């Protein structure tokens, strides 16, 4: 038998919980106000508390913090209505173990939750969250913020609430969305992901809601949209901030009514999917700028999860390197100096940039070495590094090419790959750096071609100049000045 505390101003609900928990063999104390609560915790120790987030005379979060300070071992379940779910998120961050929505849909869920918290405690649930993340290859590491993020996501995954994931580009928003789907009761149903910014605006509505035959030019047959394809599963709308205001209106209707209509259709269809949205931009700022609807933000921002950027969890980089190398069986090892370079870099592209860096390094090292030194890293990771010293490579080249011995063909391939990487990078380009790369290419090309000519003429500069179609004076200039 355990002592259980109920704090709620709804008398009928208190009677219901009292009867249910007493029937399970527990001793129950009921409080209908903050004043009753103050007396109760002075008189008795409790193992579990069911706490309403709203009381007429006291803030529920204040009661929670007071309870945790007075009786830290007491497990807490927050009871909330739909309109106060965001407060429930705060309650869990303040130490609540779980939350349940009112009105209660299933008595068995309350019985099961009571048993889990009294018998197992909260630790097993946290362990289950990390175990699932490991099975899904979600790297979490030692960073406390990331650990808490996934534990929180695991708790809300089992609730039928909309989730908004925010984070910079490349932080792994879709990875977290997959985790939430697999941790939910919808895991056996489809997970449909769509990038709202990658679909043409005139096609986005059709892609989301489907269309009927003949709805527009090219609509040769009826098509199911993503909402319909998701069924009772999860629909992940990545970069929802890229959706037009017209599409946002239709998304709002789905969230408010649970209904949608195909393009060109008249039949109302029921949405059964759980929505997870994501954005790399701050949607509150987008609302202020007039590019995102405030009422839609209110609907999707029920539970907000923010993924920290890689630069704020550099303590995980050594473990992250080992994790990726083992996962892909690359058979490489990074020296301590190389790891130091990785930890000093800002990682604007986050995990996506990190993975691409590993792939690039592995390609450079293939057939050459299994030990990755700093010189195998991209130049942007080396720009402030002490490892750039080399007597044989011009200064300009140091700023764009790893200081490893290479012939001109290798240099050219490396230069082209770096220029392609720069072109494909979504972040702001440093034009000064690009110009330095172009200048270094000019220098290296001139030097390589002249040296090749001198090798053919066994060092005869006059003959080499004639073969190159330039004057001897120009040849001297390129050899002496263009360095």
Using only C-alpha atoms, the radius of gyration works out to 31 Å
β-sheet strand percentage: 5-15%
The first-level CATH class name of the largest domain: Alpha Beta
**Uncertain segments:** 386-406
Task: Kindly report the average pLDDT value.
Answer: 85
How many helices does DSSP assign? 22
Spatial ordering of strands, largest sheet: 2-1-3-4-5
How would the global form be characterised? elongated
The CATH H-level superfamily of the largest domain is P-loop containing nucleotide triphosphate hydrolases
Number of strands: 16
Q: From the 3D coordinates, which CATH architecture of the largest domain would you assign?
A: 3-Layer(aba) Sandwich
Largest beta-sheet details: 5 strands, parallel
Q: What is the CA–CA distance across the termini?
A: 84 Å
GO molecular function: ATP binding; sequence-specific DNA binding
Modified residues (4-aspartylphosphate): 52
Keywords: ATP-binding, Nucleotide-binding, Phosphoprotein, Transcription, Transcription regulation
Protein name: Fis family transcriptional regulator
């Amino acid at each position: 038998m355990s002592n259980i505390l109920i704090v709620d101003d709804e008398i009928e609900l208190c009677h219901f919980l009292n009867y249910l928990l007493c029937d399970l063999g527990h001793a129950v104390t009921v409080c209908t106000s903050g004043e009753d609560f103050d007396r109760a915790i002075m008189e008795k120790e409790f193992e579990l508390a069911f706490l309403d987030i709203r009381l007429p005379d006291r803030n529920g979060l204040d009661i929670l913090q007071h309870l945790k300070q007075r009786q830290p071992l007491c497990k807490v379940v927050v009871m909330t209505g739909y309109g106060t779910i965001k407060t429930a998120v705060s309650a869990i961050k303040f130490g609540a173990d779980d939350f349940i929505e009112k009105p209660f849909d299933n008595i068995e869920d309350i019985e099961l939750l009571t048993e889990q918290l009294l018998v197992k405690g909260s630790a097993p649930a946290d362990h289950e969250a990390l175990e699932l993340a490991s099975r899904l290859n979600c790297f979490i590491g030692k960073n406390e913020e990331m650990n808490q993020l996934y534990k929180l996501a695991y708790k809300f995954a089992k609730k039928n609430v909309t989730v908004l994931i925010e984070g910079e580009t490349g932080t792994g928003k879709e990875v977290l969305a997959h985790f939430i789907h697999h941790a939910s009761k919808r895991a056996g149903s489809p997970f449909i992901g769509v990038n709202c910014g990658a679909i043409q605006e005139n096609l986005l509505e059709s892609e989301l809601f489907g269309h009927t035959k003949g709805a527009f030019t090219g609509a040769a047959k009826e098509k199911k949209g993503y909402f319909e394809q998701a069924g009772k599963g999860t629909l992940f709308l990545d970069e929802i901030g890229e959706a037009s205001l017209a599409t946002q209106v239709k998304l709002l209707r789905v969230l408010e009514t649970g209904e949608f209509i195909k393009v060109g259709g008249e039949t109302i269809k029921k949405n059964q999917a759980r929505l997870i949205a994501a954005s790399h931009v701050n949607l509150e700022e987008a609302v202020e700028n007039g590019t995102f609807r405030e009422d839609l933000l209110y609907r999707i921002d029920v539970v907000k999860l923010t993924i920290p950027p890689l630069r704020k969890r550099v303590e995980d980089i050594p473990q992250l390197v080992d994790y990726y190398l083992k996962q892909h069986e690359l058979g490489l090892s990074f020296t301590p100096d190389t790891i130091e370079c990785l930890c000093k870099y800002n990682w604007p592209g986050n995990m996506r940039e990190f993975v691409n860096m590993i792939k690039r390094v592995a390609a450079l090292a293939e057939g050459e070495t299994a030990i990755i030194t700093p010189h195998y890293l991209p130049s942007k990771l080396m720009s402030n590094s002490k490892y750039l010293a080399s007597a044989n490579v011009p200064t300009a080249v140091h700023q764009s090419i790893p200081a490893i011995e290479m012939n001109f063909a290798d240099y050219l391939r490396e230069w082209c790959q770096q220029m392609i990487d720069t072109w494909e990078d979504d972040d702001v380009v440093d034009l000064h750096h690009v110009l330095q790369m172009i200048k270094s290419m000019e220098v290296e090309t001139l030097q390589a071609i002249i040296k090749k000519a001198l090798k053919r003429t066994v060092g005869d500069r006059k003959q080499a100049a004639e073969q190159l179609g330039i004057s001897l004076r120009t040849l001297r200039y390129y050899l002496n000045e263009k360095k």
